[in-house]
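Progress narrative, work stream C.
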Amino acid sequence: MLDPFVRTGLEPVIREYGVVVDDDIVIDEASHFWADVSSPAVTDYNRHLVTRDLPLTFFPGARSLSPTPQRVPGTSVVPLVNTSTNSWGQTSPDRVGFVKGRDKPGPHTLMVVALRRVRAGDGDEDGGPRSRIAVVGDSDFATNSFFHIMGNGALFLNTINFLGAQENLIGIQPRTADLPRINLTNRQMKATFFLSVVLIPAALAVVGTAVWWKQR
């Protein structure tokens, strides 16, 4: 779990699995958590055991991931979480705004799982089991502050079970004592506001006016 604009020394290891950690922060104006455009929210996932039946997840401050220019032999990379087409990878942490030619337009991948086949000493694939890693462009989604919100905790636990080859445990979540709450994306908040503040009062006003005019 590698946050934006932070070098950890793991980048060369991740490249060996066919994944490049981009030096940017993802901005998603179309789908983000609450009013923070730097917290991409995702409801539609690529099909995989880790993301099966997963509700909304969000990533407060995430970097994008890209494939290596050439495929690494013996590896298999599966993107799991992607942002919307209205997102972009911003290369500067000091501003919010797309700069053509410098920033990369979306959609962007925020999480992948990669498998690498164990190789024999002569460099040929030996057909044995594959090692597994998961790469996420954000660590905040799994912290105590956000673990219990929507699908963040489920995504983290599903990933751990997948990496441990415990696929039978994926989707089995521990019971929590958290109070029920509703968390919405910006798009859902706008739709709720329009429905409750604009559309329904306007409809009632039209009906009331029609009844008054008819009685008159």
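Work stream C, second folded protein:
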Amino acid sequence: MIKIIKTFCIIGVLLSLLGLSACGSATPTSVPTLDTNPLRTEVAKTVLAQVTRNLARTPSATPLPSLTATAIATLTSTPTQTASALPSATITLSTATPVTGTVNLAEWVFQSIADNTIFTPGATFTMTWQLKNVGTSTWTPAYMLRFYSGNSLSAPKEILVGREILPGETVDFVLKMKAPTNIGSYQSVWVMATDTRSNFKQPVYLTIIVATAVAPTPTP
């Protein structure tokens, strides 16, 4: 590029010199007119040839390789596995009567004679226990309240329920009892049982005191 500029500068100088020669002071003597056209033509050809040689020597710019956009691999998302909904279990409550003996539980509710009640020797009394069925089984009429330990206080050893007792229902067991003739403290333990005499785990009991009545002191 610098060589080309120098060449054009030389051309400019030559043309300026030719112009000055043509504009020189006129003399009275008639001078034959110089035809400068052939000279200008030769100069132009020389300059053009020089420019052509310079351009031929000037290395052409090597075109840069075009950048080919490399396609970026598209990330293929792995399909998310959707958990299949499991079929929900349907719980059907049975309306049938609970099977006997599944869960036998009894709960004390009430008793008519309080513990540590004092009786005279041989006194009779009525004892009532009210029990509640808090299990899942139905007490059949053959279920019973049976004597377990201590002193039976002259009551029958087994008292049948006599009817079906559904879960949540209560039943009263009424026993005729008699205090022992000897003075002292006595305990009577009873327990619910199935028709096969399989005892429940919740016993009930009564504690009494047998004492001699104190005779009143005679007034003098």
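The CA atoms of residues 103 and 136 lie 5 Å apart. No further action is required on this item.
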